[in-house]
Design the sequence.
């Protein structure tokens, strides 16, 4: 066993460290994600706490109660599991890190905001380590990161693709696009409740004019 370990070239130590870091981050997220998908896993409060006035509960317990609701809990759990699986494989590790950082940053922000100070401090230290490991993984994959970066900025140009007037009209068309999503519902309402629809339009017209 020791002989086999000694046979590993020293230049491979760094690569092995990155492998361990990837495994650590992956397992953490897979475990936390799986916990959110089980009936009595992460989140939720006790029956005794449920009967207490909300003013008597800590912010942390209130957060734990709110996050126990669906589909929030399952969606976060699934995203964490997917992130963990992406970190396990070399082909997808960069994507896994890009998933891990924003999810972990949101978790850390919520922990700082709602956890007791002593407990939050522990999590801050842990997450600082996780973010450092993410940076080291990206540094290890810097050649592939260069390819991604060059692909993103290769076609970048300050030359305008449209006339200036069209850029000025973007906010107008954005509002039109937003309103268009309500058109099917408005048409249905006009067909099913024509009297109420015309009454509403008349009220709006009277308010405006």
Sequence:
């Amino acid at each position: 066993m020791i002989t086999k370990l000694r046979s590993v070239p020293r230049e491979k130590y760094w690569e092995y460290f990155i492998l361990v870091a990837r495994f650590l981050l992956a397992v953490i997220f897979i475990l936390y994600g799986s916990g959110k998908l089980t009936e009595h896993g992460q989140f939720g409060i006790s029956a005794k706490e449920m009967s207490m006035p909300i003013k008597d509960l800590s912010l942390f317990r209130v957060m734990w109660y709110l996050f126990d609701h669906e589909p929030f809990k399952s969606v976060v759990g699934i995203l964490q599991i997917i992130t963990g699986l992406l970190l396990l494989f070399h082909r997808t590790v960069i994507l896994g890190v890009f998933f891990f950082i924003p999810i972990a940053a949101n978790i850390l922000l919520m922990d700082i905001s709602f956890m007791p100070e002593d407990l939050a401090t522990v999590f801050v230290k842990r997450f600082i380590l996780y973010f450092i490991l993410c940076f080291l993984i990206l540094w290890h994959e810097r050649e592939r990161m260069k390819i991604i970066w060059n692909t993103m900025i290769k076609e970048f140009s300050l030359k305008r693709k449209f006339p200036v007037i069209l850029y000025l009209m973007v906010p107008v068309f954005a509002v039109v696009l937003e309103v268009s999503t309500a058109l099917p519902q408005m048409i249905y309402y006009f067909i099913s409740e024509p009297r109420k629809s015309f009454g509403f339009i008349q009220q709006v017209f009277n308010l405006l004019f």
Observations:
- Residues 11-37 form the longest helix (27 residues).
- DSSP finds twelve helices and no strands in the chain.
